[in-house]
Every structure is written in C-alpha cells, then in structure tokens.
Specification:
The structure holds 3 protein chains of 3 kinds. Chain B is an alpha/beta fold. Chain B contains 9 helices and 12 strands. In chain C, helix 4 crosses helix 6 and helix 6 runs parallel beside helix 7. Classes of the chains: A alpha+beta, B alpha/beta, C alpha/beta. The interface between B and C is large, with 51 and 43 residues.
Chain lengths: ~450, ~325, ~350
C-alpha cells in the first residue's frame, strides 16, 4: 500500500499524467453511464435501427449545439402526440352515427431555416369504414392553408413534402419552404403554427389518432446519421467498447508477452530458440492483412478480432526487450539463493522473475492502449467492424460510406474522430508519465 | 618543499538537492595536506567521502544546491576560479583523480596507451607521439609492461587496469592525486602491489596523495596523516603514527576497535546503530546517538579542539 | 548453467568417518569452453582435484583470490553445479546419487549466505515473504507453523521488534539488517551446514564484526558446520578453526588456524599473510614483498605446481615439471609444495 501511495504521489508531479488520468477517469465514468443508461440489448436493438425505432429523427442532422457557432437558429426536431400535451383532441358525436374528431397540434417555430420534413403518423381504429380526415395549416400571420384530405388506414404516414396534392397546390415549390414563408416568400415567419386535423369516423368504435413529427435540421447532442440513428448511442457505447478492447488487448498482449519472454529467458536452450524464431517470423507477418482475412472468411465478431489481435501481437519485438531484462535479472543473487533453497523453475519464473518485471510492464501497457483502440476503429472503417456493435469506428465507416465530408456533414466524422484522439492522447500522456516514473533513467526529461 | 602546505581546505560545503530534501554530503570540511605527504580520509559508506573527492575536483552533479568554501592550492584559492580556468589549470593539471572503480571507467574502444596520453595532449599541449612516449614512462612508474601500450582495456586484468588509471592520473605530473577507493575491487596481492606502486611514486616523484577509503587496515600503508569523516564532517585529524595506536574521537576509537587484526590478540568491537542520513541530520554532535561517552553537552555542535597537533571535534576534549 | 559431465565418477568413493559431515573427494569441476562452429575448445578447470573433510560443528575458511575456484567449489557444495569428477558426500550420502527428492532434502540441510546483502533479497518481497519462501518450498504447510519459525529465526538474528521488520522491504533496511535477513533465511530450514560467501565484505567496517559475532554465536548454539569463503585473512583469524588456502583450482595448504598464522608453509600462503595489513603507521615506511604477476588462467594452467611462475623459491626442474603431492609437515598441517618433500 505504501509503495502504491508513493507512486500515486509521483504521478501527480507530472501535469501530463494528471490530465491523462482525469480524462481516462471521465471516460470510464461515461462508459459506466453508457452501459447503465442504455443496456446492451437495448443498444443493439437501437443500433440496428429501422424506421419504427428512429422515425422521429431527421436524417443527416447536425448536433443542436451547432447553433452556438452561428447567429442564426436551426430548427430543432420534435414530435407531438397525445402524451406530450400540445395536442388537443376534441371528440364530437354528430348524432347520425358519425363522430367528428378534431385534433390540433400547436407549436412555436423560431428557427431561421426551414425544417427537413413534417409528418403525421396516423394510428386509427375502425372496422370497415375508413375515417376521413382533412388537414389544415394555420400560420402565425393568420393565414389558413388547406394541406390535403383523404381517407386514412389503420396505420398511415402522411409526409407533407411528399404529398403531390400539396406540392401542386403550392405551385410546385417545396412545401417545407412554402409553408413557412410569408407573403414575401423569402424569410421564415416565426411564431405559433397550428396543424388542424379534422376527421370524421363512421363507426361507433372508430378512432383517429396521429403523431405529428417535425424533422428539423439539427437533433440532439450528437446529430443523426443516414439511418436517422441518434449518434449519441454509438458515441456513448463506443466508450466502453474502445476502453475494453484497448485495455483487454493491451493487457492480454503485455502479460502474455512477458510470460513467454520469462520462460524463454529462464529455460534457455531450445525453448528460447523456438520463441526467438517464432518472434522473427511474426514480425514479418502482415498483421492487418491477416486480420482482414479472418474478418472476411471467418467472423467479424469483436471477440474473435480481439483474440486474433492479441495472438498476433504477443510475439512482437517487445519479447526481445523483456527477454533482455529477464536475462539480466536471471543472474541476480536472489535468484541464485532461490535455487539454493530449492525453488522449482516454475516458482522462480512466476514468483521471482515476473513480479520483478511488473513495474516495467505498466508504462508499456498503458502506452499501447491507443494503438489497439485505433486498430478497432481502423478495422471498422475497412468494413471489418463488429456487425452489431455501435462503435466509433462504425460511425466513421458509415460516414465515409455515405459521403459525409463530400456532403458537408462534418460532425459525423469529427465527433468519433475527436473521441478517438482524446482517448489515445489520454493514455499516451499517462503512459509517458508512468514511463518516466518507472524508468528512472528518463526522469528529469 | 617538505613541510609546506600544498592543499588547505577550509569550510568546504557541498549540498545536493533531491526530492527528499537537501543532502548535506560535505558539511564544513577542513583539512591540510603538506607537499609530498599522503592524507587518508577514513569513513564508512554514507559519510560523504566520495562527495568530498568530487568537491575538491569540482566534478559537480547537476543537482548541486550549495558549493562553497576555500580550497587553497599552493596558497591560491582555486574556488574563485572560473570553470574554464579551473579545467585548464587545476583539474588534471595540478590535481588528478583516480575515481572509484577506475578500472571500469577506461574507455573500452581506445587503446590504453592512447588513454594515458590523452591528458598530456590536452593539458600539456603535446603532440601524440610525444604524449605516447610520456605514457610509456608512466607505465614504467606504475609497473605496466611497455608492450601493453597498444592493448585494449578488456585485454588487461583488473590490477593492470587500475595501474593504467593511476598512470592516467600521473601523466600531467600533478602535485596532488586524489584516489577514491583505489583497491576495493582488487585481490589481496594485487592490492599490495598497487600500494607499492603508490609508495614508489610518492618517493620518486614527490607527489602528494589524498586517499579516500573505508579500508582502515590498508590505509595505513600510505598514510602520513589521517582524517576521519562522519556524517559529512571531519571529526578527527592527526598524524598516522599518533592516530593508529590511540585515536581520540569516540567514533575513531570504536572504528579502530572494530578492525580485526591478523597479528594481535584482540576481540574486535562493533558499533550499534547506523550513521544518520545525510538528508535529516540531527542537531548537535552527529555521533551522539551511538556514542558510549555522550553527555548533556553533546546536544550542541561540538567545537574543534586542538590537542598536541591533532584536531578532534568532540566535547570530551573541551 | 551447469557443466558437462564428461568424465563422470571414475573414482570410487572413499570410506567416510562417522563424525564427518561433508566429505569432498577428488573433486573436479570443469566448465566447457565452446566456440561457435568449433565445438569444445577447452575447459575451465575451476576446481581441479580437491580433497577435504568437514566435521560437524567445525568452521573452516576457504581463502583465495578471485579466479581461484572457490566460488565454483561453493556452488558445487550447494548443489547448484554438478561435479565433473569426484564426489561430494554429505552425511554418508553421495550428492550425485540423490534424486530430486534427495536434493530437496539436501537443500534444507545447507544454508547459503551471500556476499551482497541487498542483491540476495528479492526487492519486491517483504521480509516475511522472503523468510516464508524456503518454508513453503520445503513443504511446511501450516501458516501458523511457518510464522512461528519465522519469529524464532528473527529473534536469533536479533532483528527486534520482529513484527516491525516482517513488513519491511529490503530497501528499507540497512546493510547490516539486510545481511541478518539473509542469515535468517539461511537458518530457517534448520540446516546442519552453512556456506557463507564473503558474508561481510560488502558491509561497513563497524558492522562486520557484529555480523561475524552473530554467525559465530549461531554456530555455537546449533553446532553448525561452517564453510566461510573469503579473501580477508584478518577476519578468518577470528572466525574459523581450520584454514584452507586455494590457488588456481587446488588447495595448497590446509591447517588449523593458529598453525597457518604462526607457521605458514606454502609460499602463496606466506604472500597472502604478508599482503594483509594491520592498521599500523609503520606500514607506510616499507614496501611489501609480494610476488608479482596475476593468478593464472584456469583454462591452461601452468605445468607442475601452478604457483611456480610467481614463486620466489621455485625449484627448477621440479616445481615446473610435476605437481606436488600433499605433505603433512606437522600433525594436521598439510601443504602441497615441493619445499617440504
């Protein structure tokens, strides 16, 4: 315990270590939050997406805070249904077997730009006779426009900008623009808008209900992608995945490399030679190509890739480094004493050689985490990412495949990239500081 | 030039800054050395004697905190000299050093002849051929065969390498050579041979020596005077002929008593406890904690008392 | 690490007396010199024909300079090297005949005290763990039993208060304290014999005697046999009953301590004694008469007596031709030198 506290105090002497540690702690906190707030199964389902999951989100929407970067306001996305309160439903029986159902959706529009899309998602109940609805649009400056009228089904989606009747009645212009501009037909008219749905049902137990969705051009903290998925899910979930993959790979590789180097150095002879030859062969193996082959022909599951990464990373040049140190330690007097009081080879390797190495292991371990985190992302970009998991690499992959930069959706690439960079930087800073602590010769640099 | 003072060290201080606090390695050291005499600085590990060697030669590490005092060489204070002047005129020109484990400090890729010639080329401005001739002469003084001049250090035994290190220190004819544990890693017979070499150099070339060691028995092979160092201070000085039979300071007494003797029937003694750390020095007499003769006055710093030409830092003699 | 058994056991084992704990007979320990592509090009004759008996409760000092083979002798006695030829017999059991279990038993019978107190202790283990290791390996299963034995041995080496020290790590201890832990570790399996390799040479002068006295006390209390290996003759006088002088792989003189000091016979022994100084100011006034040169290479040792190239009293035609046998000049005083034919 004492040495641990002493080491922590040493670490705190280096500002880079403090920054790195703080960022890592924040990342761990976020990872824990992500796993709790969005449990695994839910995350997978969410990420698989689909219209029914993400219909309320716009496509290619930038994050909401982008408004701070400009003086103008972007329209936010929202939805109104019976639970949100801005929906007024009035049911009036007409006495002749029909019922009038009026639903009014009220919202305040303050943005400087036009929304992407508006939709009404109808969920109706009837037996055989379809209800009939009329949709009207009330602008803040007192105009009333007829949108359309039609018979509705049990499930029906009415998209404003795709309704040909509406388009034609507006003279061919994009309804999103036309509905929000005033007489001068250039600037957005801000104020309270109402969508009035006037419906008639013909059967006693029929009902009309609808959800009004407005797709703005921004959404949420992170924006959306081509499948309307909230990027926050993948950004959040990317944290634990990156951390676990990075740490697991770094830990697994370091520990196994050290153990193998210890065995080689201690037993010498043919075992040592064998390990050296395997290492030399492994150094020339094309690491990425092999992973690509495994991913393509066998499985893209992240555990398989993790296992393969570790397996290919064990016999690296680091073995030679550890081996050199072990060869030195092997000649120590206390090792000789241990042999003199009868310690077995196994015991010496695990209880005497390896504990000696652990302080030297730690900086290398921490410093190698970034490369594994980046590896996972790179594999995803190459199309070898785990097919179901939401990871940062997957975001970049989707973004690239959908031409994000070309289309100007910079947030889509920048957000995961910044997170990758931050994670890598944090571990690298901490790793360098640890290196200076555990390797006294570098102190003072 | 016998009986004239060659080196007069007054209040020499060398403190290092470390993360644990300042290390007061040399804390006000005074001693004198006459021409053609040898003084032995006796001390155990952690008393600061190696730092004393570095302080005299101004071979300071980067984390020096305090370096002050007077070092008068032939009457002139060399502490006030600038770095360049010290390097040219004092270090290796007037005072040389044979450092600890010198035989391992030889450059493995240079021939030993060249290494001995190098100081001559730098300080005496000699050409290489002349310097090599001088190196040959040095080899004679230290007892290294002439044909070794073109050999590499790894071809020589430990004893031979130590002789080469001494030759290196000797080549510029300094008036003073500081030897830091010159024989601690060498065998018994080699040790005796090296001391024969040092005795011969002292006699034939008139060089003075400062011998820094913890080996009390072998120090008597060279010592004209003895200075005992404890916790950064000199606690006793005196002529060897008076010191060895009857040391004054309680620490010196216990130290001498702890030396096992081959030729005398004596039950050796030991000192309990450990010397104080040079970072956290106690106030008052630094040996008081372990001293069998301590009394109330010892909580104050003892003065240096002169007694029959010997000096001792102890209240007992006040 | 271990050497080749090229010429194994062609010599029969001699009968060993009852009170002899360790009998070393015609021991040779040779190491192969291999050169890449050439195979075996020679041997290092580290120990080249040693004979001695060690009795229970006896302390012997093996004195010699570096390269004389005393380290290899020590490691062979500890069971870390295998003899190339000859036998090491402990309590009437031949080391070469011991299987794994036998060797394990033997290791519990011999304690090893090393030269460098800090290097001898694993820096990442606490004192308790350091002392527990031999017990765990030796098969002491019960934790209380182990703790009890640790306490007992810590008290014997006078590291008080025991509990304070048990939790410390080696770097927190002084040199003397570290060496006490090393001694405690050597004692913990209750051995019959202790091999100490320069146990005090890396300690301060004021602490050496303390440790030597401790070792002497332990020897008396437990009737231990001691093999004390050193090059410092002045401590030997205080510590052992018999002195063996070793040179270039051979024992050149074996005698009780007083006899060696008063009446040294072999010229090499005489040289060692001359070279050992007592703190006497008169030493500075005279040169020491010591033989020139260095100890010979153990690969190609000189013919005949190995000391003859440096010996002032070499008899030409005899010393440089034939190796001298052992002569007993007075009871118990054996010298391998042609001067005593």
């Amino acid at each position: 315990m004492n040495t641990f506290k002493k080491n922590v105090r040493e670490i705190l002497r280096y500002p880079s270590a403090i920054i790195g540690s703080v960022v890592i702690l924040i990342l761990i906190g976020v990872a824990i939050y992500a796993v709790i707030a969005i449990p695994y199964q839910k995350a997978i389902t969410l990420w698989r997406g689909g219209e029914d999951v993400w219909y309320r989100n716009p496509k290619y929407a930038a994050p909401e805070w982008i408004d701070w970067l400009s003086t103008k306001k972007q329209p936010r996305s929202f939805y109104i249904n019976s639970t949100t309160g801005k929906m007024d439903k009035v049911v009036t029986p007409n006495g002749d077997g029909t019922t009038g159902i009026n639903i009014t959706y009220t919202f305040n529009y303050t943005a400087d730009y036009f929304p992407q899309e508006m939709s009404l998602y109808f969920t109706d109940k009837f037996d055989q006779k379809q209800p009939f609805v009329t949709i009207d649009w009330l602008t803040p400056d007192g105009r009333k426009l007829r949108i359309d009228n039609f018979a509705v089904d049990t499930q029906q989606t009415f998209r404003f900008s795709q309704d040909m009747n509406l388009v034609n009645s507006l003279g061919g212009t994009n309804p999103m623009e036309a509905l929000f501009t005033g007489i001068d037909s250039k600037n957005v008219v801000k104020g309270t808008y109402k969508v009035v749905v006037t419906g008639i049902t013909f059967e006693p137990n029929s009902d009309i209900s609808a959800e009004f969705v407005l797709h703005g051009t921004v959404f949420g903290l992170a924006g959306t992608d081509h499948m309307r998925r909230d990027l926050m899910v993948a950004l959040l979930w990317g944290v634990p995945i990156a951390l676990i993959f990075g740490l697991a790979a770094a830990l697994g590789t370091s520990v196994l490399t050290m153990i193998i180097a210890a065995f080689g150095a201690w037993y010498g002879g043919w075992l040592d030679e064998l390990i050296q030859r395997i290492t030399e062969v492994n150094l020339v193996l094309p690491f990425l190509s092999i992973l690509i082959m495994i991913g393509t022909f066998y499985s893209r599951s992240i555990w398989v890739i993790l296992g393969a990464t570790i397996a290919l990373s064990i016999f690296t040049g680091a073995i030679k480094g550890y081996r050199a140190i072990f060869l030195q330690v092997r000649e120590s007097m206390y090792i000789e004493a241990a042999r003199a009081y009868g310690a077995s080879d196994m015991r010496i390797v695990f209880q005497y050689l390896i504990p000696r190495m652990i302080p030297l292991l730690i900086p290398g371990l921490v410093s190698s985490v970034p490369s594994f985190v980046f590896l996972e992302a790179s594999l995803a970009v190459l199309g070898l990412g785990d097919p179901v998991l939401p990871t940062w690499g997957k975001i970049i992959d989707d973004a690239w495949a959908n031409g994000a930069l070309y289309k100007g959706y910079y947030y889509w690439i920048l957000e995961p990239a910044v997170l990758l960079m931050l994670t890598g930087l944090a571990f690298a800073l901490l790793g360098f500081a640890l290196d200076r602590i555990f390797n006294p010769r570098l102190r003072g640099m | 030039m016998a009986n004239e003072i060659l080196l007069d060290v007054r209040n020499l201080v060398l403190h290092f800054a470390t993360t644990r606090g300042p290390v007061q390695a040399v804390d006000g050291v005074d001693f004198q050395l006459d021409y053609n005499k040898a003084v032995v600085i006796l001390g155990e590990s952690g008393c600061g004697k190696s730092s004393l060697a570095k302080a005299i030669l101004r071979l300071l590490p980067r984390n020096v905190q305090t370096y002050s005092g007077e070092i008068r060489l032939a009457g002139k204070d060399v502490m006030v000299l600038g770095e360049d002047e010290f390097r040219q005129n004092v270090r290796w020109a007037a005072i040389s050093l044979v450092p600890q484990a010198a035989m391992n400090a030889l450059n493995p890729v240079l021939r030993v002849g060249e290494q001995v010639a190098e100081p001559a080329m730098i300080h005496l401005g000699m050409k290489k051929e002349d310097a090599l001739q001088l190196a040959l002469k040095m080899f004679q003084h230290v007892g290294v065969p002439a044909d070794f001049i073109s050999r590499y250090p790894f071809e020589l035994s430990g004893g031979m390498r130590q002789r080469v290190a001494i030759a290196m220190a000797l080549v510029t004819s300094p008036s003073l050579i500081v030897l830091d544990e010159p024989t601690s890693a060498l065998d018994l017979l080699t040790q005796a041979n090296i001391f024969n070499v040092l005795k011969r150099i002292k006699k034939e070339l008139g060089t003075s020596f400062i011998l820094i060691t913890h080996d009390i028995a072998t120090s008597s092979e060279l010592a004209d005077n003895v200075a005992v160092m404890y916790a950064g201070q000199i606690v006793e000085t005196g002529e060897a002929s008076k010191f060895f039979p009857a040391p004054l300071h309680p620490y010196s007494q216990k130290l001498m008593a702890s030396v096992p003797r081959l030729r005398a029937n004596q039950d050796p003694d030991f000192i309990t406890g450990q010397p104080p750390s040079l970072v956290n020095l106690p106030g008052g007499c630094r040996f008081a904690e372990r001293c069998p003769l301590r009394f109330e006055k010892c909580t104050q710093d003892p003065p240096v008392i002169e007694k029959e030409g010997r000096k001792v830092r102890c209240w007992k003699y006040a | 690490m271990a050497n080749e058994k090229s010429k194994k056991k062609t010599i029969a084992v001699r009968e060993v007396a009852d009170n002899v704990l360790l009998s070393v007979q015609s021991l040779r320990v040779w190491f192969e010199l291999r050169r890449f592509g050439f195979g075996i090009v020679g041997h290092v004759h580290a120990v080249d024909g040693l004979n001695f008996d060690l009795h229970q409760g006896e302390a012997i000092a093996v004195v010699g300079e570096s390269g004389c083979g005393k380290t290899s002798l020590m490691k062979t006695i500890l069971g870390l090297y295998k003899p190339t030829e000859g036998h090491v017999v402990f309590e009437h059991k031949n080391l070469s005949d011991m299987g794994r279990k036998g060797l394990r038993w033997y290791r519990g019978q011999v304690g090893y005290v090393q030269q460098d107190p800090f290097g001898a202790l694993p820096p990442f283990m606490s004192v308790r763990r350091i002392l527990e290791e031999p017990l765990i390996i030796g098969g002491v299963k019960s934790k209380e039993e182990r703790l009890k034995r640790i306490h007992k041995v810590m008290e014997e080496v006078k590291l008080f208060p025991v509990d304070d020290f048990l939790n410390k790590f080696p770097h927190m201890l002084s040199g003397g304290q570290q060496q006490r832990v090393v001694i405690a570790r050597a004692m913990i399996l209750e051995p019959k014999m202790i091999v100490a390799d320069e146990p005090v040479s890396m300690l301060d002068a004021s602490v050496r005697v303390e440790i030597l006295k401790l070792l002497r006390g332990l020897q008396a209390t437990h009737n231990l046999s001691f093999i004390y290996i050193t090059h410092d003759l002045s401590t030997v006088r205080y510590f052992s009953e018999r002195i063996f002088v070793m040179y270039a792989g051979k024992l050149v003189e074996k005698a009780p301590m007083e006899a060696v000091l008063k009446n040294p016979q072999h010229p090499y022994t005489l040289a060692l004694l001359t070279a050992t100084s007592d703190p006497d100011a008169n030493n500075a006034r005279s040169y020491k008469e010591v033989p020139p040169g260095e100890p010979p290479s153990l690969v190609k040792p000189p013919t005949g007596c190995r000391f003859h190239p440096r010996c002032a009293r070499m008899i030409k035609g005899e010393c440089d031709v034939e190796e001298p046998p052992e002569f007993e000049t007075e009871p118990g005083h054996i010298t391998a030198c042609w001067l005593y034919k």
